[in-house]
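User: I'm writing a short report section on ligand binding and want a predicted complex to refer to. Could you take this sequence and pyridoxal-5'-phosphate and write out the structure as tokens? A short remark afterwards would be nice.
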Amino acid sequence: MCDLVYLQVTALCVYPELMKSPDFPEDTKEHARTILGGKCCGGGSLGAYSESVGVEVIRRHVAKYIEDRDGGIKCDYNNVILSGGASEAIKSVMELLNRPVDGKPVGVMVPIPQYPLYSATVAEFGMHQINYYLDEPRAWALDIPELARALEESRSTCIPRLLVVINPGNPTGSVLTRQNIEDIIKFAFENRLIIMADEVYQHNVYAADREFHSFKKVISEMGEPYNTMEMASFMSCSKGYMGECGLRGGYCELLNFDPKVKAMLFKMISAKLCSTVHGQAVMDCVVNPPKPGDPSYELYSQERDAVLSSLKERAALIAETFNSMEGFKCNQVQGAMYAFPQLELPEKAIEAAKAAGQAPDVFYAFQLLENTGICVVPGSGFGQRPGTYHFRTTILPQTPLLKEMLARMQEFHQTFIKKYQ
Ligand SMILES: Cc1ncc(COP(=O)(O)O)c(C=O)c1O
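Assistant: Sure. The structure tokens for the complex follow:
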């Protein structure tokens, strides 16, 4: 992953003595000084607590990033909260909105397959998970009649309040079209649902016919009455070309939240003091990267472009390889970092799984691991239509390693099928 700039700037922030070193480009020093000098970065150190919602100058940079990304649509930094990874903000917003009514739990619409943070948080907070299935034959599109079905079926058991959309998708690798996003927004508006737009993979789009459209931009451009909807969107330094997942940086933008509700969220967050200030500094590097003409720009842009073009190559390679394997069907990896192929398992393999006390896809994943050392996550970890079997694998290994992994998988699969057919 591309990391030199992040490491240089954060190293300078952690140990400002390094400012004296000629090894650090001047713009990285300037950047570090901006962060450390930022209002709220107490005592010019990352080692001090920050304002609970995050260092003001970093929130301002996030707001500017959002405005530039969305073609100038206004973003008020007062609506931006910095967090220790997107996860922390996602959980805080879910906790905030978890207000059961007359003993009925709050319903959260979650895509299937989903990223397990959502099912885990729904369970932790005693909320109700409303599963809606993504449409695999249509490149994992989000189907509005399916949303309506799931919502109607849930009404007797919960108070539906949140609609989670992951775009680009984990584990599906899908990227929603603008039309699809507009339809989702209309659905949420008509059903008074708050959209939680998980957009942590916004830099990871590979398909030539797809681009990333933020929910904020689409809501804003749809105008009245949609542009008054409440929405929360989430971003992270863990993905993209950065991959700084251990440093725990993220942010959330709140749109149209009632000031009293927002105040309640800020109060909740303040009880946790603040998110890691180191992570906030990394987030600043993500939203405020070197500009053309800066000494670090060439290196930064080379690294960024190399990472993204390699991911794009690997995205194509993985889907092509799976589709060439008997019994596999894999949608194009349009974005994010994963492939989620469907595989047919012979009846005898399903029986062997039963005898081993495992779900068939879990059985397959264990066999793969034990025979090849390759670790994939069975589809049941994310949810899948009953009777279908998937696994998730990632495009993160470098191309030669990915090729080797796919070759080993192919060999394993042939042997597995022969054994159980
Ligand atoms: C869809 C999605 N949302 C959120 C996260 C969590 O991101 P973070 O590391 O910023 O907490 C992940 C991590 O894999 C993810 O895939």
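A remark for your report: The two ends are 41 Å apart (CA to CA). The first strand starts at residue 80 and ends at 83.
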